[in-house]
Amino acid sequence: MLLTSPVTPCVAAPVSPPIVLRSSASCPAGAVIFVESPNVNIMPFTANVNDRDHLVVGGCDTVELARRFGTPLWVVDEKTIEQAARAIQSALAGYPRWRVLYAGKAFLCLAICHIIRRLGLGLDVVSPGELYTAAAAEFPADLLYMHGNNKSESEIRDGLSYGSVKIVVDSESELEMVARVAGELGKKARILIRVTPGVVPDTHHYIRTGHADSKFGLPLEHLGRVVAEIARLGDSVELAGLHAHIGSQSQEIEPYCEIIEILADCLQEIKQSQGLELGELDVGGGLGIAYTQADRPVPIYEWGQAVAAQTIASFESRGLNLPTLVLEPGRSIVGTAGVTLYTAGHAKDLPGGPKYLAVDGGMADNPRPVTYQARYTACVASRMHGPRPDKAITLVGKYCESGDIIVKDAYLTATAGDVIAVFGTGAYNYSMASNYNRTGRPACVLVSDGQAEVIVERESYADLLRQDRVPSRLREQGSCV
Ligand SMILES: Cc1ncc(COP(=O)(O)O)c(C=O)c1O
User: Fold this and answer.
1) pLDDT of 262-281, one tens digit each?
2) 151 lines ligand 1 (CB under 6 A)
3) How far is the CA of 332 from the centre of ligand 1 (A)?
4) Which residue among the candidates 10, 113, 400, 480 is catalytic per the annotation?
5) Bigger pLDDT: 377 or 352?
6) Residue 8 lies in a domain
7) Residue 207's pLDDT band (boundaries 50, 70, 90)?
8) Which residue among 111, 262, 436, 460 is least enclosed by CB atoms within 10 Å?
9) Domain with 229 in it: what CATH number?
10) CA of 445 to the centre of ligand 1 (A)
11) How confident is the model at residue 23 (pLDDT cuts 50, 70, 90)?
């Protein structure tokens, strides 16, 4: 089969090495278990090739999916999401109290809310629209956390009215607003304070958030006075814990260990100065996935184990009670589950220059490459064992930007009409998509056990016009010249 990398990737997901549990309530210390972590694979767990030489995902022939639902098409493999959730949950099973929140910003729609709920995950929402979606799916309020660096008063009111959501407070003025709104509603707001720990992960600067001069969170230096202020606010606010998030697509464990140490120091300081032992430690999300053969993210299972082990070490060494550990993975839960299907169109072989192959989608359905030079892997889904070219081609989109490049070095041979699959598009594709060039967003199809069901309809031309209004004076015929 041909992919963008000269190295042959594995179609069937590789089995992660056995993992030895250090200690666990449900599993004795030293027990060896196998947990497969989807985030280390480029393809979904169920990816395979059938006897027609077509890519199969979730038991569905992708060429058939392209024919039935049209392209571009976002395909989401339910089993891969389940597997990622299971991996992180089993990694934490030995830790006394924990909660995994799925970060909805990665990809949220009603069906995803239902899947996440069924898997026993909580949900982190970052906008009124995400909160509205969660509420429409009747997502339990006590499993909802509200994020955002500029929450509005109405957003806070909606959250508190929905039920016992937790609000992750991002600034001192927001704290004041939360207290006021909670007071007006006669409620007690349960909050976490987001701090910027000054930890910089190995990722693109646009998706770093934990550095000291970040727009997110409170500087550590201000934490003491904010905690004192919360005590003064009395009944309207209850401080549950601290939160930090370093950024996204991190492939390393070390930044997480660092933030746990820093937050443990903060909690110790709060205990000593205010006599308050906070019960919750939320270390955010940000674990990376493998987009190409060059990526080596920590398996999600190992990430969970390492974070739990570090929390135990950091808290026990300071004589602190173990907190409820909260993680907020988004990309590593849904990223690998997504495959985008395109139809190949025109090709160009420039003299002395690159060879281009254009597909019927691009930066409007996947703005990550043009936004922060994200890299992807592609294959010809309609001819998985087709010939491999000597030279890489450049897979480009159809939008009016030179930067609309999907894969710069794609080792594939395709002609017009072939179905092209791009992997790792489950996170930050649908959620970041636009209507650029007046294009409708693609449909999204959930696949599982050979069944394919639309979970988001394709936007029609009528959808594109739905919000348009023409002032009547513009309807008058004639020209002003
Ligand atoms: C506060 C917070 N939590 C969780 C996430 C999820 O990150 P990821 O999808 O990389 O796991 C983000 C992403 O930006 C975030 O800002």
Assistant:
1) 999 999 999 999 999 999 99
2) no
3) 10
4) 400
5) 377
6) no
7) low
8) 460
9) 3.20.20.10
10) 24
11) very low
130 lines ligand 1 (CB under 6 A): no
- Closest ligand 1 atom to residue 288 Cα is 10
3-state DSSP of 456-475? ECCCCHHHHHCCCCCCHHHH
Q: How many degrees, rounded to 5, is the angle at CA 184 between CA 178 and CA 279? A: 40
341 CB less than 6 Å from ligand 1? no
> Is 246 inside a domain boundary?
yes
Structure confidence by residue, pLDDT tens digits, 70-93: 999 999 999 999 999 999 999 999
Question: Does residue 175 lie in a domain region?
Answer: yes
Cβ atoms of residues 186 and 179 within 8 Å:
no
The values of phi and psi at residue 240, to 5°, are: -90, -30
Q: Two tokens at 154?
A: 């109405």
pTM, two decimal places: 0.91
Range of the domain at 174: 19-33+78-334
Q: Which two tokens stand for residue 269?
A: 């300081």
CA of 198 to the centre of ligand 1 (A): 16
Residue 250 alpha carbon, nearest atom of ligand 1 = 10
Does some domain include residue 121?
A: yes
Half-sphere exposure at residue 58, Cβ-oriented, CA atoms within 13 angstroms = 25
pLDDT at 214: 80
For residue 286 and ligand 1, the question of a CB distance below 6 A is answered with: yes
